[in-house]
Amino acid sequence: MNRLLTTAAVVLGAAGGGVLQQSAYSLPTMIRLGYTDCASCHKSPQGGGLLNEYGRGIDEAQSLRAAEYKPTDNSIIRGLSWGGRITQDIRTVTQETLSSATGKAVTGVLRNRWMYRNATELGKGFRVSTVVNIENEEAPRPLLKYERPDRVGNAYVSTALLSYRRGNNLEFSVGRDQLPSGLNVSDLGLFIKSRERMGYYDAPTQAKMFWWGKRHMVVPYVYAPGGNEPGGEHEGGGGLLAEVDVFGKHRTVVGMNMLRGTATNYSRTQVGPYARLGFGRWGVFAEHDITRRSLVRPTAVSFDQQASYAQVFFAAREWLVAYAGIERLSVEKPYADHLVAGRFDLVARLNSNFTVGFSSRVQQNMITGAIGPSLALQVAFKTSN
Amino acid sequence: MTRKSVVTSFISAAGFAAILGAASAPATSNISVDSGTAAFTVNTNVSAISVKGKSGALQGKVQVRQTSEGLKLEQVEAVVPVASLNTGMGIRDQHMRKFIFTAPDGATPDLKFSAPEASCTPSAKENICQISGELAIRGVAKPFNIQLKVRENGTAFRASASGTVKLSDYGIEPPSQFGVKTANEVQLQLEFTGKQAPTYSASAAVVR
Description:
By secondary structure, chain A is mostly beta strands. In chain A, 9% of the residues lie in helices and 50% in strands.
């Protein structure tokens, strides 16, 4: 079994894609309709988690069913919600992935992840958020000579946060979570995620502040190891994410994420400008991360990495969105790596419960010439309340 | 004929034609607008959410007279079909039509603007027209002022306008959805090209 897992991980790592999308198609694409931040629809201003009541209305509206959202009147569910103070759901994402690489056989992997998500309002602005995951197959970051992936087993807590919101535009959070990121896309297999220690199991202990307004968001944060990192890679550090709506028309957001992290084996400094643009039925995401790593082990050496991602999306219908994207990764010697990938995704939101998606991706290793195509079909389900 | 004399002759002929055209042009032009754009933006109580909508079905007509003080507009009329307004989200469009544009009797009359006349102040590039008229929403007309910027482009006029509508002026409660409430003030932006309305000969009129 372990050998099978290792083989699957290596092939997936070689293909560089087809990994389970944790958030199952969150909607940063809503910038096309003028939604510049996540706080409008999500419980957390970082986005990607449970929806608030308005967000649930938008979620339903952006589906094929396009019905009016009505909060449940089921007495059992209302009772479980503690008079509306608890928002919770169960979400499952199932994905069949076929991938290959030059000279290797096609490999199929069926992945299934279950999530229980809970956000409990404690009153006076305090909220506790938890996400518990169970999965049949691990989806770690690629195993690199200078960086090993975090491992968690088949069950793990990706979010355990205590938050305090003051007013409508200021929130403080402490606990375990993903670090703030520029492009909050759900596929953590992208180079701008998986090569920047933002995989599915990277959930450092952190304290962060979100301050947002009509045209800006500023997120300073500090973090410490999450505890599941490999030896010598228990990273701690801090960073700042800042973005602005350039023209004030809720269509053109540009920002920068800056991070400095240190561990026993290395230190890294990352600078990542990004942009989210929306123009009615279509839009553009782009991010370019420049990271300088200084290793202490296995050898003392410094080298740069550049990871880029650009994506165009088009909403053929409100519920049917097509994505076309390109990725590029370039790592300097002595760990030289040069990967280029193109992908196409089609996502259909059938209703607020069901979403199906098709993804195809081709990656080429520009050094070895190896080509790794992959196809994935994903079905996501969540309970709604 | 030298090149210079050809050019001179051409300019003379063009100038003569222009003078003839000006002399024979009617004092008042009937201008019609078809497929103009009417857009609106309204903020909400949530800082990052504003609602934007658009229609590409603005129609209108106006009589334009060129005076020594600038353009003079008369009998200004414009219509935007409510059904053509689109926010990009179907459910939101339904809400907009229901809560903003549906009259007590259940009808959804088109938005109509009319003004008897307006004078424009010419500047180097365009004419600025302050138009005081009436805007009808739900079939109820209320005074409405809008500033129109007009550029002459041959026989056509390219125009843009902006104004602010207060829903409270029409007794309309700003819609609210799960805690997100729109503001009372709605910003309007219009863009259109006005062209000479077609004139028909007597025989053509008979055929029609």
